[in-house]
Automatic annotation (TrEMBL):
Residue ranges annotated for the FAD-binding FR-type domain, each copy included: 19-149
InterPro entries recorded: FAD-bd_FR_type, FNR_nucleotide-bd, Riboflavin_synthase-like_b-brl, SIP_FAD-bd, SIP_fam, SIP_rossman_dom
Source species: Actinomadura soli
PANTHER family: FERRIC REDUCTASE, NADPH-DEPENDENT, NADPH-DEPENDENT FERRIC-CHELATE REDUCTASE
Protein name per UniProt: Siderophore-interacting protein
């Protein structure tokens, strides 16, 4: 067993979550097919021999899709041991969650939200709408992922940009897991089929005509949760950075969780293109 796989097994058998790094690679993946997942996500399925050796071990791990520049040139990072050496200025890229990887059938799913910062369609969404089977896209990563051992309860939440990670996480939870998943979408058309354990309650929050990231629907719902006394809860939240700000305080000051027991990440920020927040 290689070093990072042994570390993943160690964390899963323990009591404290930890980020585990994987060797970072760039692969040239072929677009196999695309399709809508609900009304708010486009699924791009990648495959071919280029994805051989790809690794995927954590529900919130991410890859970067690297796009050609305006002049048509493509600038790729170069291998540097287990890392990558990126050219400067950085190539045009967008970051997405690994929704699914099937090494047997050589298939990698990336689900891309149709709205970007401020509710507009971004570069990745436009590409996902227009790309055709047979085209090649370069994928960098994942650089690793957050491995979470078993907890008594799980509290998950986010908007549609976090839905791919939430969907994968509830699928991969132990079937005996208990907890809650809150997902903010525009309306019922953006809901998708999930496969949570029987003890995990999924609540879809409809914001209606309000623009993404403009109301406190998600924060209000999450803060109504009551964790049974004496139980360990793990909290994972992602979405618009401003919406998550009060939830950081709530987790710290009201739930009084240890830093290792929660992960709250701004995936995007209203009015900011290509927002990047270190988890």
């Amino acid at each position: 067993m290689t070093g990072h796989l042994a570390r993943i097994a160690e964390v899963r058998a323990g009591t404290v979550p930890a980020k585990v790094r994987y060797p970072i690679r760039v692969c040239a993946a072929e677009v196999l097919r695309t399709g809508m997942v609900g009304a708010g996500l486009v699924r791009v399925t990648l495959g071919g021999p280029g994805v051989d050796g790809f690794e995927s071990h954590a529900p919130d791990e991410h890859v970067k899709l690297i796009f050609p520049e305006d002049d048509g040139s493509l600038r790729l990072p170069e291998p540097d041991g287990d890392l990558l050496r990126w050219p400067r200025p950085a190539p045009t890229s967008r970051e997405y969650t690994v929704r699914r990887y099937d090494p047997v059938n050589r298939e990698l799913d990336i689900d891309i939200a149709l709205h970007g910062a401020g509710g507009t369609e971004g570069l990745g969404a436009a590409w996902a709408r227009s790309v055709r089977p047979g085209e090649i896209v370069h994928v960098a990563g994942p650089p690793g992922g957050l491995i979470v051992p078993p907890y008594d309860r799980y509290l998950l939440g986010g908007d549609i940009t976090a839905l791919p990670a939430i969907a994968r996480r509830v699928e991969e939870l132990p079937r005996t897991a208990r907890g809650w998943a809150f997902i903010e979408v525009a309306d019922a058309r953006e809901e998708i089929g999930l496969d949570p354990p029987e003890g995990v309650e999924v609540c879809w929050l409809h914001r209606g005509a309000a623009a993404p990231g403009t109301i406190g629907l998600l924060a209000d719902a999450v803060r109504r949760v009551e964790v049974p006394p004496g139980e360990r809860v793990y909290v994972w939240l992602a979405g618009e950075a401003g919406v998550l700000k009060p939830l950081r305080r709530w987790v710290r000051d009201e739930l009084r969780l240890a830093r290792a027991d929660y992960d709250i990440t701004g995936y995007w920020k209203r009015g900011v293109a290509d927002f990047d927040e270190d988890p």
